[in-house]
């Protein structure tokens, strides 16, 4: 099952289950979505529930928030989260804070979804990872799926959640095929927001990642295995809430921690994980400094050779894991 098809299936099932669920965004209806994630949904549910919008992110994000405040459950697609910067006031202030400012009286069950982070050859303005941006905001839940099962189970949970959820997908994973369990095929398949998954168990070093960096971390773990190094790979799934307990449990076992992400190094997801580990009991279990692997601290280059150097890959992750074990050459 591909991530694209898993997302499509999640939305179809939730629209069949709840008449209040609808989709809106640029080209989501007649064009089947810029990345074909919403393919066929307009034909099944009509243009009342799958709606093309004008090219005005601030405008249609505001419509989505208003619909959610009125009791509907909109799924608002951004063609890329880079364009959602036009709508960040609606996401952070209107969606994220209304429940608190109403004294808990008004819920805002909206999902903002779309591709996030670097793709390939889309340059500086279309390559940013917004995980840490939205992850810092009280009132928002922030999800970053990796696999097809992540996409289906977490999107269904996000649509049913009474809170605003920022759902950060990855363009390069849309066509990636993943194993598809019997459980995932069920209409009631849900994954809890705020719970990480141990993708590979290990005993020597903990590698924590999210989105496409999980894929590269698993590749690195496979190479490390050939050298007798057992790496545990954790797929965060959720940025906010952050499942620090699963990370801490792993660090207590391996005594070493490497974080991997595609965002900028300053004030990132890895920075938050590192802070929470060293500020708590995790510090006493570390036998080496925590190392953060991130995107380069520059606007993402357009030139392919430079772009390849701007983000962590499996060899770099392997090298960091070896450094944690004092085995780097």
TrEMBL record:
Known cofactor(s): thiamine diphosphate
Keyword check for 4Fe-4S: no
Function: The pyruvate dehydrogenase complex catalyzes the overall conversion of pyruvate to acetyl-CoA and CO2.
Location in or out of the cell: Mitochondrion
EC number: 1.2.4.1
Gene3D superfamilies, sorted: 3.40.50.920, 3.40.50.970
The keyword Translocase is annotated on this UniProt entry: no
Superkingdom, natural source: Eukaryota
Alphabetized GO MF terms: metal ion binding; pyruvate dehydrogenase (acetyl-transferring) activity
GO cellular component terms attached to this protein's record: mitochondrion
Start and end residues of each Transketolase-like pyrimidine-binding domain: 1-176
Key words, A-Z: Metal-binding, Mitochondrion, Oxidoreductase, Potassium, Pyruvate, Thiamine pyrophosphate, Transit peptide
GO biological process, one term: pyruvate decarboxylation to acetyl-CoA
Protein name: Pyruvate dehydrogenase E1 component subunit beta
EC class (word): oxidoreductase
Main localization, broad class: mitochondrion
Originating organism: Dacryopinax primogenitus (strain DJM 731)
Catalytic reaction equation(s): N(6)-[(R)-lipoyl]-L-lysyl-[protein] + pyruvate + H(+) = N(6)-[(R)-S(8)-acetyldihydrolipoyl]-L-lysyl-[protein] + CO2
